Amino acid sequence: MRHRLPTLVAASTALALGAASMAHAQADAAAAPAEPAAEATAAISDDQVNSFALAMNAVSTLNQEYAAKIQAAPDDAARTQIQQEAATEMTAAVEKAGISPTEYNQIAQAAQADEDLRARIGAAMQANGISPAS
To answer: Which one, 34, 49, 53, 108, has least CB within 10 Å?
Structure first.
């Protein structure tokens, strides 16, 4: 489980960064075969996309909150403790949104390479009143 948590944080951070990471992912996607990604995206249900959008918003908020705490930590031990707390809270937020951390990570990874999936996530965010900047 500990291996999934840093991925959760990394995936949420990558998605929260926006255009720069998306441009890089699009370049990678252009080099990769399109059909497997399209099949994987088609397997992601609208309910999963909606849950992902809610989870991504919660994780992004926690990321911002904990980034300040990590920067203010007096030493490495305190930073490590805060990072563990953040990972625990992010995992709980993802699960509360209705998906597992593994599903969250898979959708995040797929979204980096799939413009249609990113559009679906954007539409789900909008439908839930979440602004893309949050």
So the answer is: 34
The pTM for the full model equals: 0.70
- The sign of the dihedral angle between the CA atoms of 66, 69, 71, 74 is negative
Q: Which amino acid is at 4?
A: R
Give 32's DSSP letter. S
Across the 134 residues of the chain, what is the mean pLDDT of every consecutive 10-residue run? 46 40 38 51 90 96 96 96 97 97 96 96 94 64
Burial of 6 per CB tally in 10 Å (0-12, 13-18, 19+): exposed
Largest CA distance in the chain: 49
